[in-house]
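Long-time lurker, first post. I've been practising inverse folding by hand and with some scripts of my own, and I keep getting stuck on stretches where the C-alpha cells seem ambiguous. Below is the full C-alpha cell string for one chain I'm working on. Before anyone asks, I'm not after the true native sequence, just a reasonable design that respects the backbone. If someone could post their per-position residues I'd love to compare against what I wrote down in my notebook.
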C-alpha cells in the first residue's frame, strides 16, 4: 500500500472509530469549562492548566504569532516609550484612533481600541448576551467570542463549514431568529485557515445585518491573496450593522504587546463605551508601538512574503508526505493526523516543536503556525519522526 493510500485507509478506519476516540478524549483530560465547547476542542488542556510547566520549544508554532516582529520602527518606538512610562497614554490613544479611522475610511467615533482584539471579542459577547440570546457561527470557528457568549448563557447555533471550508452563508442566514443577537464570522477562519469568498460574504452581511449584528473577525486579512482580500469595513460606511475586528498581533508582530480594535456604527459601540473605557487598558508602550507599526509598510510586506514562502514550503512537504492539508490563506495550516492529539503533542513538544491539535471534522488535526524557515524545517523533520 502506498503511503498516501495507507494514510487514507487509516483515515477511514479512524473515522469509524472516531466517535469513540473523541468521546474518550472529551472525558479523559478536559476541565469542566471545556465541556461548553462540545465539538471543538484543542488538546493542550493539561498544559493550559499550568502553562509554566509546558516543555521548552525550539520552534514555537502554536499561537499564530509573527516570528519576525515587531518591526524595526515599532521596536524603536517601544524603546523610546520607556522614558514616558510615568504618563498615561491618552494622547497616544487618541492619535492611534485617528490613524485607524483614516486607514479604515471612517470617523473616529466608529473605532474602539483595546488590549488585543480578544478583549473586544469578550466585551462584545458580554454586552450583547448579558441577558442571554443566541449566537450563530460556523463550526469549527475561533471560539473566543462564542465561549464568552456561552458563559453569558447564550445558545450557540453552530453551522458546519461547507465542503470547501467556507462559511455556509445560506444556512447561517436561515439560523437567524428573533433570539439571535449576533452572527460571528471569522474570515479567514481559525483553526481551518480557509476563506469565505469576499463577494458572497459582502452580500450576506448586507442582508443579514438587517436582522442582527454581524461581527466579522478579520485577524488574518492581511495574509489573504491580493485577489481574495476583501474587508467588510466598507459596509459600515454604507450604514450597515456590521462590526469588524482587527489586531496588531499577527501581521504587525505585536501579539505580546496587546493592541486590537473594532470598527462599527457609533450607536453599536455606545453600550460598550458606556461600560468600558478601553483606552485605559492600553499601555503607552503598546500604543506608541502600534502607531509606529502603521507606518512600517516595508515590515508588513516582508511578513506577508516570508509567511507565504514558508507556508508554501510546508504545504509542499505535507504533499510529499501524503497529508491532506486545508487550503490556507493565513499564518497557519491545519491537516488531519492519525495519532490522537495528546500523544501527538507530547511527542512533538518533547522534540522541541510546539504545535496545536484540534478535534474537528470528526478527527484529530494538527494546526501548525508558520514560523521562520529553520523552524518549519525542524517541524517537517519532527513530523516525519512522529507520524510517518
Ligand atoms: C481569529 C482570531 N481572532 C482574534 C484573535 C485574538 O487576537 P488578539 O487578542 O491577539 O488580538 C486570534 C488570535 O489568535 C484569532 O486567531
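-- Answer (accepted) --
I ran through it position by position. Result:
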Amino acid at each position: 500500500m502506498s503511503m498516501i493510500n495507507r494514510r487514507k485507509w487509516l483515515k477511514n478506519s479512524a473515522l469509524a472509530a472516531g466517535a469513540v476516540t473523541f468521546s474518550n478524549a472529551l472525558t479523559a483530560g478536559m476541565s469542566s469549562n471545556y465541556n461548553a465547547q462540545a465539538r471543538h476542542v484543542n488538546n493542550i488542556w493539561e498544559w493550559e492548566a499550568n502553562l509554566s510547566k509546558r516543555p521548552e520549544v525550539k520552534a514555537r508554532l502554536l499561537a499564530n504569532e509573527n516570528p519576525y516582529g515587531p518591526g524595526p520602527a515599532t521596536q524603536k518606538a517601544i524603546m523610546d516609550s520607556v522614558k514616558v512610562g510615568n504618563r498615561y497614554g491618552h494622547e497616544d490613544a487618541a492619535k492611534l484612533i485617528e490613524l485607524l479611522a483614516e486607514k479604515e475610511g471612517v470617523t473616529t467615533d466608529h473605532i474602539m481600541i483595546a488590549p488585543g482584539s480578544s478583549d473586544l471579542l469578550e466585551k462584545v459577547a458580554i454586552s450583547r448576551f448579558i441577558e442571554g440570546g443566541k449566537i450563530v457561527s460556523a463550526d469549527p470557528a475561533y471560539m473566543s467570542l462564542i465561549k464568552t457568549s456561552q458563559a453569558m448563557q447564550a445558545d450557540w447555533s453552530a453551522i458546519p463549514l461547507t465542503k470547501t471550508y467556507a462559511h455556509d452563508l445560506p444556512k447561517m442566514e436561515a439560523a437567524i431568529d428573533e433570539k439571535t443577537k449576533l452572527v460571528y464570522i471569522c474570515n479567514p477562519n481559525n483553526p481551518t485557515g480557509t476563506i469565505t469568498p469576499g463577494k458572497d460574504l459582502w452580500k450576506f452581511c448586507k442582508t443579514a445585518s438587517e436582522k442582527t449584528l454581524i461581527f466579522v473577525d478579520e485577524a488574518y486579512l492581511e495574509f489573504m491573496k491580493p485577489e481574495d482580500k476583501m474587508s467588510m469595513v466598507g459596509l459600515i460606511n454604507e450604514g450597515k450593522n456590521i462590526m469588524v475586528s482587527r489586531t496588531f498581533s499577527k501581521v504587525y508582530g505585536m501579539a505580546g504587546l496587546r493592541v486590537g480594535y473594532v470598527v462599527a456604527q457609533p450607536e453599536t459601540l455606545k453600550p460598550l463605551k458606556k461600560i468600558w473605557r478601553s483606552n485605559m487598558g492600553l499601555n503607552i508602550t503598546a500604543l506608541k508601538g502600534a502607531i509606529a507599526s502603521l507606518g512600517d509598510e516595508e515590515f508588513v510586506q516582508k511578513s506577508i512574503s516570508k509567511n507565504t514562502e514558508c507556508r508554501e514550503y510546508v504545504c509542499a512537504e505535507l504533499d510529499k508526505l501524503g497529508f491532506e492539508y486545508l487550503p490556507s490563506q493565513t499564518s497557519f495550516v491545519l491537516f488531519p493526523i492519525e495519532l490522537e492529539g495528546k500523544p501527538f503533542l507530547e511527542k512533538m513538544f518533547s522534540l522541541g516543536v510546539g504545535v496545536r491539535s484540534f478535534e474537528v471534522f470528526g478527527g484529530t488535526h494538527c494546526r501548525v503556525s508558520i514560523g521562520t524557515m529553520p523552524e518549519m524545517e525542524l517541524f517537517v523533520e519532527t513530523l516525519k519522526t512522529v507520524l510517518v
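A couple of notes from the structure itself: Residues 168 and 361 are 15 Å apart (CA to CA). The chain has two domains: 3-60+299-387, 72-294. Happy to go over any region you disagree with.
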